[in-house]
Amino acid sequence: MPTVHALLEKIRGRSILVVGDLMLDHFVIGRVDRISPEAPVPVVQFEHDEFRLGGAANVASNVMAMGGRVELAGVVGDDGEADRLLADLSRRQIGRGGIVKDQARCTTRKVRIVTTRNQQVARIDYERDGEIEGETERAIVRHIQELGASADAIVISDYLKGVVSRGVAQAVAALAGRRRIPLLVDPKVPHVDYYAGGTIVTPNHHEAEAVTHMRIRSSGDARDAARRFRDRVRCDAVLITRGEHGMWLLAPEGEAELPAEAREVADVTGAGDTVIAALALGLAAGAATADAARLANRAAGIVVGKFGPAAVTIEELQGR
After folding, report:
1. Does the reported pTM lie above 0.85?
2. Where are the domains of the chain?
């Protein structure tokens, strides 16, 4: 088994294509000192707001922070939120060549009202989540074929916001199979039939329970659910993320339980993005599935100590 430092050297410069739902996470942050006289709700005194990359864009941000190279394929609206998201991608040197603007859609934005103590008061979602079709879908497929020709691995980041249509998923699977490169999927339950042929799929324990109709309360349950999930989805490997209980890996070369590495949990938002970014880089570098999963587990232990969607840097991984 290579050391973490040896694996981190191998992942530098590896090229990942991320296909999926681009989102902008908007945090409105303020102080709460009283309850409204109009209704039993807190009054948030605005202090400042923050914008973060979310969804597939957060996966891409993590790939870059860990030393890889990345291209994005996804859809945004023709609006100010798209301008902000695209500018942030450019600032981070994330490839935007596969991003399509669709005037019929809005850029997905999640607005969270949060106190200065990081307590979420409410969330407002701006989205059009119907599956893409017509020329928008055809354009995404063309970009996948062009950008995937030089990728070392492909990630599908599915948030059910419309980009991962059946046609898009089939195009990705066909390309990855033809080029014999890893295909990783961060799934959503309604699309389990889209992911056949994936190298590894990474459900959280709630998603694994929903797909398998099993309750996961122990390592044995996780093992059985992973096997049933693999058979249902028709993929090669499964990594079930279980929060404070760590991860369960089912791979062709064997099974393993990975204990959680988090020292302090601040926020689990976007942790799955970090997991699949690290896993993709590890597999792209030729690592065994278990070694790539250990790297992903280490990255998860770091990112849950941060607030909101965040990236883990290669320096942080080296320093653990």
Report:
1. yes
2. 4-22+55-108+130-319
